[in-house]
Design brief:
Strand content: 35-45%
CATH class of the largest domain: Mainly Beta
Largest sheet: 5 strands, antiparallel
CATH architecture of the largest domain: 7 Propeller
Number of domains: 2
Oligomer: single chain
Number of strands: 33
Length: 421
């Protein structure tokens, strides 16, 4: 029995050591719209206060949306730079300069930052130091505004080329590349620019084009499965949930389409063009409109549940985290950043921004990160998690593991004792 007790003590010590070294789960927002389905939904605690933690002044206007991975904020600016900023204090970690505006948002996957630029390139940068891993040039005037989506070591993104000079004469492309090597797997041509970001679900790529269509392609080979034609440019990025594609159009409508065949399920007409990308959670679609409103729509039938008036056009795409909807507004004037009750649309807090907001919010660990267009700023609003909170979680995890280990050891000893009898 003494030997058995020593074994039990040793097991507990090993479990304790392992528990202390286990890293806590991260609630990163590592790509545009948070995940490959583009639902715009975060998993961590919400930002419940508009306290300004820090702001960072970029070298140009900020249309790019921030992404957050491993305690670092990655974002582009129209000065042509990609920034890596410390998420706690906003201090610059590194900067990579492209040849033109960076309107695209990043995707951070396996230690690499993928992001597009108006210098016609998609870049793959080392997330730690900003050194270039590979890049791909899409051709002269073929801008990469679309935000890349990385899934299963494949990066999907769109671009467009102005062939004649008129807004109705754009040729667009959607691409798939090996994310590690930068080798092109396929490309698909549309008759309009692709600024929309691809949602990738169940082996299918969904995106919009300025030729007024929403497309579904086979993710393996780029073959078209279906397209649905709206009445205006589709700059909005689709969200795909439970077999339904939700997307906005410049024809003032929000659409719900059958993900399998593209058939329209419903549409809801707002008072302005819809370039905002929908967020979808618990049977509700949240989306902004140039009419100056944020809408909550029933995901099943498109009925309006509520709307909140921002007072200016809304191009930014909402983020939803644990019962709170975050959105920015402003159209060639100062705008606001708001947090709304997801159930009834009532304002929880509002922050007066120094410039209008095209950038979409990312919410991680109780902090909301967002860019501002004409003030050239990236800001963080909320309350940083304290180290003591992490300590409490670590202690709780450790205690649970110890209890499990002790229970297992006791059961083993009881079995051995009964066998000895």
């Amino acid at each position: 029995m003494r030997k058995s007790r020593k074994v039990a003590s040793a097991v507990c010590i090993i479990i304790l050591a392992c528990a202390v070294s286990v890293p806590l789960a991260s609630a990163d927002w590592a790509m545009f719209r948070a995940n490959p389905s583009h639902t715009g939904v975060g998993t961590g605690p919400p930002a419940l206060t508009p306290k300004l933690l820090w702001n960072f002044t970029a070298d140009g206007t900020v249309e790019s949306s921030p992404v957050v991975a491993n305690g670092v904020v990655y974002i582009g600016s129209n000065g042509g730079d990609v920034y890596a900023l410390n998420a706690r204090d906003g201090k610059e970690i590194w900067t990579y300069t492209t040849g033109r505006w960076v309107e695209s948002s990043a995707d951070v996957s396996n230690g690499v930052v993928y992001i597009g630029s108006d210098d016609n390139k998609l870049y793959a940068l080392n997330a730690t130091n900003g050194h270039i891993t590979w890049s791909y040039s899409t051709g002269d005037s073929n801008f990469v505004i679309s935000s890349p989506t990385v899934l299963n070591d494949v990066v999907y993104f769109g671009s467009f080329i102005n062939t004649i000079g008129g807004a109705d004469n754009f040729t667009g492309y959607d691409y798939a590349f090996n994310a590690t090597s930068g080798v092109q797997l396929w490309n698909f041509t549309t008759r309009g620019g692709v600024a929309s970001s691809s949602a990738v679900v169940g082996g299918v790529v969904y995106f919009g084009s300025e030729d007024s269509n929403v497309y579904a392609l086979n993710a393996a080979n780029g073959v078209k499965l279906w397209n649905y034609t709206t009445g205006g440019f589709v700059v909005s990025s689709p969200a795909v949930v439970d077999g339904v594609v939700y997307v906005g159009s410049d024809d003032h409508n929000v659409y719900a389409l059958n993900a399998a065949n593209g058939d329209k399920i419903w549409n809801y007409t707002t008072g302005g063009y819809v370039e905002s990308s929908p967020a979808v959670l618990n049977g509700v679609v949240y989306v902004g409109s140039d009419a100056g409103n944020v809408y909550a729509l029933n995901a099943s039938n498109g009925d309006k549940l509520w709307n909140f008036t921002m007072g200016s056009g809304v191009e930014s795409s909402p983020a939803v985290v644990r019962g709170v909807v975050y959105e920015g507004s402003g159209e060639f004037n100062d705008g606001d950043i708001c947090a709304l009750n997801a159930t009834n649309g009532e304002e929880i807090w509002s922050y007066p921004n120094n410039g209008f907001v095209v950038s979409s919010p990312a919410v991680v660990d109780g902090v909301m990160y967002i860019g501002s267009y004409n003030s050239d700023e990236v800001c963080a609003l909320g309350v940083l998690p304290s180290s003591s909170n992490n300590l409490y979680v670590a202690v709780g995890v450790t205690a649970a593991l110890i209890i499990v280990a002790a229970t297992v050891v006791v059961l083993m000893l009881q079995k051995r004792y009964r066998s000895a009898r």
